[in-house]
Amino acid sequence: MHEYTGAIHMHSTFSDGTGKPDEIAGFASEVGLDYIILTDHNNIGAKTFGFEKWYDGTMMIVGYELNDLGNRNHYLVFGLDKLVGTFKDIGNNELGCELSVKEYVRQVKDLGGTGFIAHPFEKRNHFPEHPPYPWTYWNTDYFDGIEIWNHMSEWVEDLNDKNKFQRFLHPLKSIVQPCKEAVQKWDELNKKRKVVAIGSVDAHAHKQSFLGFYKVEVFPYKVLFKSIRTNVILDEEIKKNDMQSFEHFKNLIIKSLREGRSYITNSYWGDARGFRFFAEYNNEIYELGDEIIYDTSASKKIVFRTYAPKDVTLKFVKNGICIDECTGTGGVWDVDESGNYRVECWLGDKAWIFSNHIRVLNSL
Which of 22, 60, 127, 277 could form a disulfide with 355 if both were Cys (CB 3.0 to 4.6 A apart)? Predict the structure, then answer.
């Protein structure tokens, strides 16, 4: 297996970001990211103008972020070369998707795209010019996953008059853990069907007035690229800077995200590469995102194993409930029940790593 680290969900000058796509990719390369996924609002101009390519070892993949005409229900779309149902005003400005959320989630799936619900439970009490955009339509099974950790959303939601100075100066230290409601919803959804999770930065590099005197860049791209990442596991080694194989490896990354062969980490607390969570059953190895068909009539148990790059508090979670906790760099658990299993790695009260599930289904 081969592991690659990347950042998802960011905006350029093709929508409401302040950086050009090549500038953003340059920042990603500087901090050692293997891939990034650009998601401008209702816009794939970056792809049209040839920005989807290698940048000194970093792959820029161009997706987009859909929303309805009321600017609700934001939806990250990967793997499509055209926009779904975008509506423009007389000035040719993208306003949103003319389709309903029910329609565009279904159409993305029908066209072979991969879709993730963005910041599903976003709340904001400050910055009225940047209101929250929570997800409101759950009556569909056509989305592939949800964003459980969004740096920008978490940073803004906990902002208040007492802490805003420190948060402006240190935009990474205050990011504690994924959205609790999103994690709970993710675990709940997996009781019905496979739903995977990603983490993101939601970078815009917005400039805000500070102390009423000057503007500061609150979320610089390079800074956010050191925070929430989604690491993918591939069966092939990527040929970096090789444009002939670009589409192949781009599709492998998107497939890994869609299948949950990935985990989420806050890289501010350390490089998580080397983390593993897998299961052994009937002489087979099952990785992140896999499903195990368990023979309840047999006496053999499933063995789950995890390894962390440094000492952590390991939480072994079944169907959203922590059923065991230990400290160290590894853990082993025997299981003889169906359920959705994952692990969390904590450094004190700070979340560091959240794995995707390995699902155990009873044989018929």
Answer: 277
